[in-house]
Amino acid sequence: MASLTRQQKEAVGLLQIGTFLEYFDLMLYVHMAVLLNELFFPKTDSYTESLIASATLCSTYVFRPFGALLFGYIGDTIGRKKAIIITTSMMSLSCLVIANLPTYAQIGITATLVVTICRTAQGLSSMGEVIGAEVYVSEITKPSAGYSAVAFISVSCAAGAMAAVGIAALVTSYGFNWRMAFWIGACIAVIASVARTRLRETPEFVDMKRKEKRLMEERAARNPEQSTKQLNRAAKTEQPKAPITTLVNCFFINCGWPLSFYVIYIYFNPILKKTFGYSPEDIIFHNFILTIIQVLTFVMWSVLTRHVYPLKLLKIKGFVSLALMAAIPLFLVVCKSGMQLILFQALILTFTLHNFPAEYIFLKRLPVYTRFTSAGLIYA
C-alpha cells in the first residue's frame, strides 16, 4: 500500500484494527461455545443441548439480513463513517455485557435470554462492520492500490478469528479466565470506536449527497407545490440502480465461503473425533492451526492483487475450489491421518471461492447511492 497517502493509510489502519476486534469478539463465543453454553443455558438431555447450541450459533447469523438493511440505510443515508462507528460500539457493549453476565445457575433463564440477545446484536454489528469498512476503503482509494487495501480488510477478519481460536485454546487447555478475554476485546473496541471519530466522510458519499441536494432543489423549483418528502422520493427514483447481473454474480460467488467454512470447521470435526480420536481440546488446536493458515493465505492473495488483476485470481480460485469440493468423497476414502486431513483443509481454505480478493471491483460496480445496502444484503 505504498501508493496510498498518509491520511489514507491512517484510515485503512483504523478500519483494519476495528474489523480485527469485531471478528475477534464475534468468533470468541463461537469457539468457546462448548464451555459458555454450559454456563448460560439450562442443563438438559444431549439432544436439547445440541438444539440450544445450534440456536445460539444461528442467532448470530439469521438476523444478518436485518443488519444489512439497518446499517445499509444508515450507511447510504447518513454516512459511512457513522455506520462503522455504531457497529464497533454495539460490539463493545455486547462484549461488556457478556463479560459481566451472571451464569444460569445464578439468575436462571434471564442469563439465557441476555446472552442470546447479545449474540444477535454481535451478528448485526458484524454485518455492518465488514461491509462498512470495505465500502469506506473502496471510496477513498483508487485502483490498483485499492485492490489490496480492501482485500486486507478480509485479512483483518481472518486474523480476528485466529485470535479468538487462540484464546479459546488457552481457556480450554490452560484455564485462562474467559471473562478476561471478553473484557479485553470490549475495552479495545471502545478505543477503536473513539479513534474512528477522526475519520472523514468519503468523497464519493459527500459528492452523492451534494448531487442529491441539487437535484431536489431543481425539482422544487419546477414543482413548488410538492412536499420535501415527495421531492426526496422523486429524487431517489432518478438515482442509478444496481445491475441485476452484478448482484446475482456477487451473490453466487459469495455463497462459496459459507459452504467452505462449514466443510472446513464443522463437517470434518466428527471425523477428527471418531476416526482419529481427537479430544475437544485437540480439535480446537487443530482449528487454530487452520486459522493461521487462513491468515497467511489471505495475506498472499492480498499481496498478489498488486501484480495480478483480482478477477484473474478469482477465476483460478474458482476452478481449483470446485475441483477440491468434488474430490472430498474420494479423499475421505484415502485419508489415513489428521495431518493429511489438515493439509486437505488448508487447500480448501487457500482456494475458497468468494469475492475475495476482488471486493474492490465488485463494490465499484454498485451505485454509490445503494452500495452499502446492496453489498450488505449480498453478504448477509
UniProtKB/TrEMBL annotation:
Q: Which domain of life is it from?
A: Bacteria
PROSITE patterns in the record, alphabetically?
MFS
- The residue ranges of the Major facilitator superfamily (MFS) profile domain are 11-380
Compartment list: Cell membrane
Transmembrane spans: 12-31, 51-71, 145-174, 246-268, 283-304, 316-334, 340-363
Keywords on record = Cell membrane, Membrane, Transmembrane, Transmembrane helix, Transport
- Its membrane topology: Multi-pass membrane protein
Q: Cross-referenced InterPro entries, in alphabetical order?
A: MFS_dom, MFS_sugar_transport-like, MFS_trans_sf
GO cellular component terms listed in the entry, alphabetical order: plasma membrane
Q: What is this protein called?
A: MFS transporter
Query: What's the source species for this entry?
Result: Candidatus Finniella inopinata
